[in-house]
Design goal:
With 178 residues, the protein is an alpha/beta fold. The protein has 6 helices and 5 strands. Bound molecules: adenosine-5'-diphosphate.
Length: 178
């Protein structure tokens, strides 16, 4: 059985991620979407929330599983008997970092091959960070994440999914005050 691991932060899962998952699921017998537990990063959504959101979004794909790991990706890949690491490539700017990680992962686990799936142009500008930024300013993220995820984002930033109960001014690249 050909197993692939698709690792990432998925904070939260976007249509860009889902497109990669769907395409990987057509190539491999099993795809394990693996949420990295990175103590150095402060995610918006907890690990449990991210795993739950991914599980719901991936429910239509019968050969996709969701997991999480701490520590080395190469160890997780070995434990799960996976032969491939799937990553999405959006723009040239992704390349340098991805190239470095792929080479290091090959050194750490020569049995696993990193496979890059090139993003669809319509998702190539999409990242979890930009979605969070837009959502935090009350912008519509309907074209970027599922309805369920959009609701979770509203709840995070505005508690009720409507107004900002914190009343705080939000700043950022799209706010005019950033
Ligand atoms: P990380 O923090 O490891 O970059 P992300 O959740 O941001 O985790 O992304 C996980 C993987 O999904 C990475 O390979 C990333 O390049 C890819 N990815 C993220 N957004 C998109 C997108 N819009 N289109 C294609 N691939 C994407």
């Amino acid at each position: 059985m050909k197993v692939a691991v698709y690792p990432g932060s998925f904070d939260p899962i976007t249509y860009g991620h889902l497109d990669i998952i769907e395409r990987a699921a057509l190539i491999f017998d099993k795809v394990i979407v693996a949420v990295c537990i990175n103590p150095g990063k402060q995610p918006l959504f907890s690990l449990e929330e991210r795993v739950e959101m991914i599980s719901r979004e991936c429910a239509p794909f019968s050969n996709v599983e969701v997991g999480s790991f701490r520590g080395l990706l190469s160890d997780f890949v070995r434990q799960r008997n996976a032969r491939a690491i799937v990553r999405g490539l959006r723009a040239i700017s992704d390349f340098e970092n991805e190239f470095q990680m792929a080479l290091m992962n090959r050194k750490l686990n020569p049995a696993a091959e990193t496979i890059f799936l090139v993003s669809q142009p319509k998702y190539s500008y999409l990242s979890s960070s930009i979605v969070k930024e837009v959502a935090s300013l009350g912008g519509d993220v309907a074209g970027f994440v599922s309805k369920r995820v959009a609701t979770r984002l509203r709840e995070k930033f505005f508690q009720t999914g409507g107004e900002d109960e914190n009343g705080g001014e939000r700043s950022g690249r799209f706010s005019g005050v950033g």
